[in-house]
Amino acid sequence: MSDTALAKLSLSAVSEAIKKGEVSSEDVTRNCLERLESAHPRLNCVAGMAAEAALDDARKADQVRSSGQSLGPLHGVPLAHKDMYYRKGRVSACGSKIRADFVPEFTATVLGKLDAAGALDIARLNMVEFAYGLTGHNEITGNVHNPWNLDYITGGSSSGPAVSVSAGLVYGTLGSDTGGSIRF
């Protein structure tokens, strides 16, 4: 399957394609990582990528799949999350300079549930500092840019996750909604 065709698939379609062996999780993951890396200079949506770990996990998911087993409904599907969710051993800055080096000792329950469903964690996404704002602006990490019109704001503290999905960079993201962040 071509990179362009992969980018146009929905989350459920890419999950089904991996399940049927039409495409490997490694290829899908590499494609998402390349799209994120390519778009980041223009959109500023990425807080950090776990490229090597994600590709290793994708290869493992492909090996499990080739043995006829399934890791769950999101088996081998690469996803990304807002930079406020803890992943043991990886930075979780919450869009803030004072937490730029914070590495949690546990993984957030919601990320653990995505892991249990077979999803692959490929990136942390930019956000409003401490999720406190409705415009998507962040003076520390820089503003996330609307992919459809760079003059418009992205809205919400979950600006990185919203942009990453709407620009077709990843199949799904995890954001949060305190005051309407993903509803507006």
Describe the protein in words.
The chain is an alpha/beta fold and 184 residues long. It has a single domain, classed as Amidase signature (AS) domain (Amidase signature (AS) enzymes), CATH 3.90.1300. 36% of the residues lie in helices and 9% in strands. It has a 4-stranded mixed beta sheet with strand order 1-3-2-4, with helices on both faces. The longest helix is centred in the N-terminal third of the chain and has 19 residues. The termini are far apart. The model has no long low-confidence stretch (mean pLDDT 93).
Q: What fold name goes in the CATH topology slot?
A: Amidase signature (AS) enzymes
Q: What is the arithmetic mean of pLDDT?
A: 93
Q: Given the helix and strand composition, which structural class is it? A: alpha/beta
Question: What's the gyration radius in Å?
Answer: 16 Å
> Total helix count?
6
Largest sheet descriptor: 4 strands, mixed
Whole-number count of domains: 1
Annotation keywords:
4 strands, globular, 4-stranded mixed beta sheet, alpha/beta, 184 residues, Amidase signature (AS) enzymes
